[in-house]
Write a structure and sequence with these properties.
alpha/beta; Rossmann fold; six-stranded parallel sheet; 2 domains; seven-stranded parallel sheet
């Protein structure tokens, strides 16, 4: 076991810690390390109830979706001051702004740093000036990190091909993992009067919500008993956020059933036949992993992150991105599958979740990457 070190985890929200990082918190604690989390405080601070030994330090200047350079400078200054005060042995950064500005602050203080690229999001999907600037900033901050850890191979390749980081610093893992003991299978392939497709995600154009709705329209005309459910919330700070009136019209027309945002999706997923995410790009989509863990078939797009979760015709179907016609054909193909084949798809997904995407396996993989850096850090 490594000698106990003080390790900081930095994220753009406490929600991020609560939903995606508890597995690595548990493992670092089990190895005897002292942990500090730096993140804006939100209702998900409740994670502290199960992790009383973790010190939480509020991050006050994080403007997640802002492009105001003054706000980013304030974030850099705040992180620098907090790092100087806390004097950690290692800092682990999650999401773009902590990766960039936290990395720069760590470099100024000569503190070892690691960055997790958890998804490239709006900035990388949409070309333009902002895309150019973010790549420049990543090139600058990339020199600050001992390792840059990606959640899929495509993102890793992009950063290397565009010379954003050095190849020897880059490594990928299979996302943050899924708790397969929490998301347990529910009998699939049962004979039902209708088929239920479930979209889970923020209500963003970039998640493929429009393609989901338009494909649903086509299928409802042919198979009126099919159900299309949407679970998720608006993200008003994201430029890809959909117009709320669109959703009202879709619900009023009977195309979809909107379930809103729910913390625990398991009761809704129990009655779903297929989880659908026609996203334009992901890190490693947690909602798909949760569906797989519950033994649900998957339909998703052929893009980074998503494509790593599905083996065609084994645990689901893959469709071209931004292609509502192809998505509708995939819906129809799934509807026409024999019930036994649907069941086998769900079982195959569950097996993949247990053998590849289990959050304990992912945490061990991450720790193997971090351990040489932890061992080499000052005491």
């Amino acid at each position: 076991m490594s000698k106990s070190k003080k390790i900081i985890l930095v994220a753009n929200s406490t929600w991020n810690i609560y939903n995606f990082r508890l597995n690595i918190l548990r493992l670092l604690i089990s190895h005897g390390h002292e942990l500090v989390v730096i993140a804006p405080v939100d209702e998900y601070l409740e994670y502290k109830e199960n992790f009383p030994e973790v010190k939480h330090v509020p991050l006050k200047t994080m403007a997640r979706d802002s492009t105001n350079p003054l706000k980013d400078i304030l974030l850099l200054v705040e992180l620098y001051r907090k790092y100087k005060w806390l004097q950690p042995d290692l800092i682990i950064h999650y999401t773009n702004k902590p990766n960039i500005y936290g990395g720069l602050a760590a470099k100024l203080l000569k503190i070892p740093s690691v960055a997790f690229v958890t998804g490239l999001g709006y900035t990388f999907i949409h070309k333009g000036f902002l895309n150019f600037i973010v790549k420049k900033l990543y090139r600058l901050s990339g020199k600050s990190h001992k390792k840059v850890i990606f959640e899929n191979e495509d993102d890793l390749s992009l950063f290397i091909d565009e010379k954003i980081i050095e190849q020897q610093k880059a490594v990928s893992v299979k996302g943050c993992g899924v708790d397969t003991s929490y998301y347990i299978p529910y009998p699939n392939g049962q004979i039902k009067e209708n088929t239920t497709f479930t979209f889970i995600g923020r209500l963003l154009y970039d998640k493929g919500i429009i393609e989901f709705i338009n494909a649903a329209k086509k299928i409802k005309a042919k198979f009126p008993d099919c159900k299309f459910e949407i679970i998720g919330e608006f993200d008003s700070n994201n430029p890809s956020n959909i117009d709320r009136e669109f959703l009202v019209n879709w619900v009023d027309s009977g195309i979809v059933d909107y379930k809103g945002f729910v913390r625990d999706i398991r009761p809704l997923l129990k009655h779903s036949d297929c989880v659908v995410l026609p996203s334009y790009r992901e890190g490693m989509p947690r909602t798909i992993l949760e569906g797989m863990s519950m033994g649900k078939a998957i339909i998703t797009s052929d893009v980074p992150g998503c494509r790593e979760t599905v083996i065609e015709n084994v645990n689901g179907l893959i469709v071209p991105v931004k292609d509502e016609n192809a998505l509708a054909l995939a819906f129809e193909k799934f509807i026409n599958l024999p019930y036994e084949q649907r069941k086998k798809m769900g079982e195959a997904g569950r097996k993949m979740a247990e053998e590849i995407f289990d959050d304990k396996l992912i945490a061990e993989n991450i720790y193997d990457i971090l351990n040489p850096i932890i061992d080499g850090a000052k005491s």
